[in-house]
Specification:
By secondary structure, this protein is α/β, with parallel strands linked by helices. The chain is built from twelve helices and 16 strands. It is 30% helix and 27% strand. The strands form three sheets. Strands 3, 5, 6, 7, 8, 15 and 16 form a seven-stranded mixed beta sheet that branches. The protein has a six-stranded parallel beta sheet with strand order 11-10-9-12-13-14. Strands 2-1-4 form a three-stranded antiparallel beta sheet, with no helix packed on it. The relative contact order is 0.16. Bound molecules: NADP nicotinamide-adenine-dinucleotide phosphate. NADP nicotinamide-adenine-dinucleotide phosphate binds at residues 41-43, 128-129, 132, 152-153, 155-159, 176-178, 181, 196, 214-215, 236-237, 279-281, 320, 323-326.
C-alpha cells in the first residue's frame, strides 16, 4: 500500500517520501482501517525533526500522520465495539503507526464512531485538537460556567476547537489573533479578541481562571500577569515538566531535565498562586465519543482551512508548517 513515510530524522531536512509498504497487520485489540482522510497537526512536522525521539519511539521507515477517519475493514479477536464497515475516527500519533496511508492500525481504545453528520474530511480534522482541548479545559482546568479562560491563537487548529468547547462549558473566552482572523474567532464565540499584531494581551486582560498555552515564545510567562490566584496554566507547548516525565514513565534523567526546564515557569507561577502544568494529549475512545456528540449536535463545528489530495501530502505538511492555518489542514486519501 502507499504511505507517506519518514526515512531519516533530521533537524532541518528530514527524509520524507512516499513508499510502497506492506499493509499492516493487527493485534487482537486492534482494527485495520481503510483511511479516507488524515488530519494534520504540528506534531506531524515535529516528529521528523527528532524533537520527540526521547518520548515517542518509531521504527524507521515510519508512516507519518496522527489523525484519521475511515472504514473498519478488519477487527481483532478482542474488539467488541466495532465491526467491519463501521465509519470511525481516531488519533493514533502516540502509537508508532501513521495515518497518512491507504490503511492504518487503530486500537479499539483510541477509536470512536464517526459523527454521522460529518464527512470523512471533517471528521479527520477533529481527533487530536478535540482530545487536547477536552483534556486541557475539562480534565485539567475543570473549567466551569462563569469562569474566564484565555486561549491564545484562536484561529489555529487547537484554538478553533477550544474556543467552541470553552463556550459550551459556559466560560468567557479571550483569544489572540491577527486582524484578518478577527471575524473567524468572533464567529466561534470568542468574547474578547486581542489583535496580537497591534495589542499586547497582558495589557488588555485580567483576572482569568485559566490559560491554554498554545503559542511558543514568552506568551506563557506573560500570561501569569492576567491570572488570579488559584488559577491554572495548561501548556501544550512546554516547558515540559517532571510530572509529565513521571506520567509517561520516562527515566529519572529525563524527569530531572524536564524538572529543570520548568523550574522558572513553576517559580513564577507559584509566586502568583498559579498552577502550571504541561499537557501531552493521549488517545481516548470515550472522550472522542463525547466529542462526537457535540459535533452531531453542532455545538462544535469543524473549521477546515485546506484539503490536499494524498499525492500532495508533503505540500500539506509544508503548508501547515508555515504556521498560519485557519483551522485544520486535511489530506484526502480515498473518495
Ligand atoms: N501538547 C500536546 O499534546 C499538543 C497537542 C496538540 C497541539 N499542540 C501544540 O499546540 C500548538 C498549537 O497547535 P495548532 O494545531 O493550533 O497549530 P496551528 O493550527 O498550526 O496554529 C496556527 C495558527 O496559530 C496562529 N498564531 C501563530 N502565532 C500566533 C501568535 N503569536 N498569536 C496568536 N495566534 C498565533 C496563526 O494565526 P496567524 O496566521 O494570524 O498568525 C494560525 O492561525 C502547536 O505548537 C502544537 O504543537 C500540543
Amino acid at each position: 500500500m502507499k504511505a507517506l513515510t519518514l526515512k531519516k530524522y533530521h533537524k532541518s531536512a528530514p527524509v520524507i517520501e512516499f513508499s510502497d509498504v506492506p499493509k499492516p497487520t493487527i493485534k487482537p485489540n486492534e482494527m485495520l482501517i481503510q483511511v479516507y482522510a488524515a488530519g494534520l497537526n504540528p506534531i506531524d512536522n515535529m516528529i521528523p525533526t527528532g524533537t520527540f525521539k526521547p518520548i515517542l519511539h518509531f521504527k524507521l521507515p515510519a508512516t507519518l500522520g496522527s489523525d484519521l477517519a475511515g472504514i473498519v475493514t478488519e477487527v481483532g479477536s478482542q474488539v467488541t465495539r466495532f465491526k467491519p464497515g463501521d465509519a470511525i475516527f481516531a488519533s493514533i500519533f502516540d502509537l508508532g503507526i501513521g495515518s497518512l496511508a491507504e490503511f492504518a492500525v487503530v486500537p479499539e481504545s483510541a477509536a470512536a464512531l464517526k459523527p454521522a453528520n460529518l464527512d470523512f474530511v471533517q471528521a479527520a480534522s477533529i481527533p487530536m485538537v478535540g482530545l487536547t482541548a477536552w483534556q486541557a479545559l475539562k480534565e485539567r482546568a475543570n473549567l466551569k460556567a462563569g469562569q474566564k479562560v484565555f486561549i491564545p491563537a484562536g484561529s489555529g487548529g487547537i484554538g478553533t476547537f477550544a474556543i467552541q468547547l470553552a463556550k459550551h462549558l459556559g466560560a468567557t473566552v479571550a483569544t489572540t489573533t491577527s486582524t484578518h482572523n478577527v471575524e473567524l474567532v468572533r464567529s466561534l464565540g470568542a468574547d474578547t479578541i486581542v489583535d496580537y499584531k497591534k495589542q499586547a494581551f497582558e495589557a488588555e486582560l485580567n483576572n482569568y481562571d485559566a490559560v491554554l498555552g498554545t503559542t511558543r515564545g514568552d506568551t506563557i510567562e506573560k500570561s501569569i500577569n492576567i491570572l488570579k490566584p488559584g488559577s491554572k496554566i495548561i501548556s501544550l507547548v512546554g516547558p515540559l515538566d517532571a510530572a509529565f516525565a513521571r506520567a509517561r514513565k520516562l527515566n529519572g534523567i529525563l524527569a530531572f531535565v524536564f524538572g529543570l526546564m520548568s523550574l522558572k515557569i513553576n517559580r513564577l507561577s507559584k509566586k502568583k498562586g498559579v498552577d502550571y502544568s504541561f499537557l501531552f494529549v493521549r488517545p481516548d475512545s470515550s472522550q472522542l465519543s463525547e466529542i462526537s456528540k457535540l459535533l452531531e449536535a453542532e455545538t462544535i463545528k469543524p473549521v477546515i482551512d485546506k484539503v490536499f489530495p494524498f499525492e500532495h501530502a508533503k505540500q500539506a505538511l509544508a503548508y501547515l508548517a508555515e504556521g498560519h492555518a485557519k483551522g485544520k489542514v486535511v489530506v484526502k486519501i480515498h473518495d
